[in-house]
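Consider this one:
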Amino acid sequence: MSKKEKSLFAMVKPSNSSQTLDQLASDTYPLTQHFSSITAIHDMSSFKLLIKLFEEQCISTREQILCLQEQT
């Protein structure tokens, strides 16, 4: 991965960080749902980390999926 590609997350303006994190949560949820039934993927350590990240950092309701954020 190039330096430019690695810096994409750093390019988010602080005023947009909440929206970006919610978008990441919304993008992550379907991945966890779709691939959880595929044993070869479900058993991968990287997929387990993705599941852990989502469970610890995101909330899913019937209406929306949001990223938990510290209140400042």
